[in-house]
Write a structure and sequence with these properties.
- The chain is built from 8 helices and 7 strands; from the N terminus they run H-H-H-E-E-H-E-H-H-E-E-E-H-E-H.
- It is an alpha/beta fold and 239 residues long.
- The strands form 2 sheets. A 5-stranded mixed beta sheet has the order 3-2-1-4-7.
- A hairpin with a 2-residue loop joins strand 5 and strand 6.
- 15% of the residues are buried.
- InterPro entries: ATPase_NBD, Hexokinase, Hexokinase_BS, Hexokinase_N.
Length: 239
């Protein structure tokens, strides 16, 4: 009974508030204050609106700054890094592909079997491994050795999914930290962020570090593409 009474009180309270709001609105309209309030709102909207021409100028200025940043280091107020990605997937891709993402506190690995334009994604598996805090400030070898999850993940391929003899597995490596790339599959770490601080990795080729770690566990896999996380985000929006 108590709950019913409380519920009734709440309903009544809401009804009273609604009625009061209607009364205030009616009084404002009658007194002319409603018209003045609407005029103020319209003026505020007009002052906050950005003309199309001005938006075009902003876009053009950003384009100029981006080109300047790509042309020379320090040549722009915008920090720009070359990605070496010059085309998008066509949809005709076939076969088994791997991807490894080193993000804030996790290694994420996925393998996907593609069947071309008609087959699409035939099958995929995903796994995520948390990075222990002590590895975020340890050594480069210790961190990349922890990517053993890739080797373990290969074991889940199953029959019929192994690459043909003489062909290496291919891996796309998404690296969520600023790197200065020298090719589509190589890049030197500029600095760590997100709580990582491993001095012996700075300035080194992160693909080389990952490749050495995979070789240490006997994994025959080639990193065919290195992508910074912002690049992968933009690509996903275009696909």
């Amino acid at each position: 009974m108590g709950k019913v009474a409380v519920g009734a009180a709440v309903v009544c309270s809401a009804a009273v508030c609604a009625a009061a709001a209607l009364v205030v609105r009616h009084r404002m309209r009658c007194s002319g204050r409603w018209a003045r309030a609407m005029a103020i709102l319209r003026e505020f909207e007009e002052n906050c609106g950005t003309p199309i021409g001005k938006l075009g100028q902003v876009a053009d200025a950003m384009t100029v700054e981006m080109h300047a940043g790509l042309a020379s280091e320090g040549g722009s107020k915008l920090k720009m890094l070359i990605s070496y990605v010059d085309n998008l997937p066509s949809g005709e891709e076939n076969g088994l592909f791997y991807a490894l993402d080193l993000g804030g506190t996790n290694f994420r690995v996925i393998w996907v079997l593609l069947g071309g334009r008609d087959g699409g994604v035939v099958k995929q598996e995903f796994e995520e491994v948390s990075i222990p805090p002590h590895l975020m400030t340890g050594s480069s070898d210790a961190l990349f050795d922890y990517s053993y999850s890739v080797a373990n993940f290969v074991a889940t391929e199953g029959e019929g999914l192994h690459p043909s003899p003489g062909k290496q597995r291919e891996l796309g490596f998404t690296f969520s930290f600023p790197v200065r790339q020298t090719s589509i599959s190589s890049g030197n770490l500029i600095k760590w962020t997100k709580g990582f601080s491993i001095d012996d990795t700075v300035g080194e080729d992160v693909v080389g570090e990952l490749t050495k770690a995979m070789e240490r566990v006997g994994l025959d896999m080639r990193v065919s593409a290195l992508l910074e996380v912002d690049t992968t985000t933009q690509m996903s929006l275009l696909l």
